Amino acid sequence: MARRRTGQGEPVTSASASLAERLDGLLFFPVTAYGPDGGLDLDAYRAHVRGGIEAGAAAVFACCGTGEFHALTPEEYRAAVAAAVEVADGRVPVVAGAGYGTALAIQYAKLAEEAGADGLLAMPPYLVVASQEGLLRHYTALAGATGLDVIVYQRDNVVFTPQTVVELAKVPGVIGLKDGLGDLDLLQRIVSAVRADDPEGKFLYFNGLPTAELTGLAYRGIGVLLYSSAVFCFAPEIALAYHKALLTGDDATANALVDGFYRPLVELRNQGRGYAVSLVKAGVRMRGLDVGEVRSPLCEPSPEHLKELAELIERGLALVPGDAATTVTVTEA
Fold first, then answer.
1. What distance in Å separates the CA atoms of residue 212 and residue 155, rounded to the nearest whole number?
2. I need a labelling partner for 270 at 20 to 30 A (CA). Which of 152, 197, 264, 304 fits?
3. Which sequence positions are flagged as catalytic?
């Protein structure tokens, strides 16, 4: 059963706390596992989600960008969200992706609610570039369709003005903005405008850029500490070390990880279309869990890039304070 928005006056516990209160830590965006026949592999998926939670994830964002939301049928989507909820078992919140046009986004939202999700990450509408008024209507309708809280994702064809975010922050159930655009000038103006309109508000902001750790220090400068970590999927040791450094002001460790691991990883990611997903799945396989390959239209990384990824993971693990390097074996040809 999905958790409804917590009313004022209720005690804040792991079961009754609002989603906004529970999103405090490193956010895990698991890949979706497929078997040899290309179908959903829920056993591998459960193992992946379980491993992330046990490694220290603060929340599970199921079937989002890294989880290939675009490639899932509604039946697969519901099954995967339900599996994540089953594994989480209330220990951490589960947020599910929902997207496309308003009608389909609402259908996915209702499936997520039926599956027991705690909230939604509202992906950009399919293809169209809408006006600010149209975007506001879209997300208002989505937030009103279920009892789930909603985080709105700004990227690609969805770019908000500060005033539109001010209005979104007033919509019941809309609790935050995930920024995948990377325009810090715009984001700072958004943060300022929302704060000026409601100084006591609790609206959340997330760094949603691919490989968000690369820009973590910059986002921290405007008060944005929450972020999605794709690296956590395959190297939680590295992701957690960076997260701790970011929060404690250990910039020396943070910069060492950026220089030795994250920047080279981003440069590798930028060498192939769709590598923000396919490299992550390859990394999960390298660390011992077969989650299958990406679905078309995405493609697998080249053998040369897989070799480079394995070397990068080894280098990153060696940079983790207090931990020895771990040898990684590439199993894909």
1. 14
2. 152
3. 153, 178
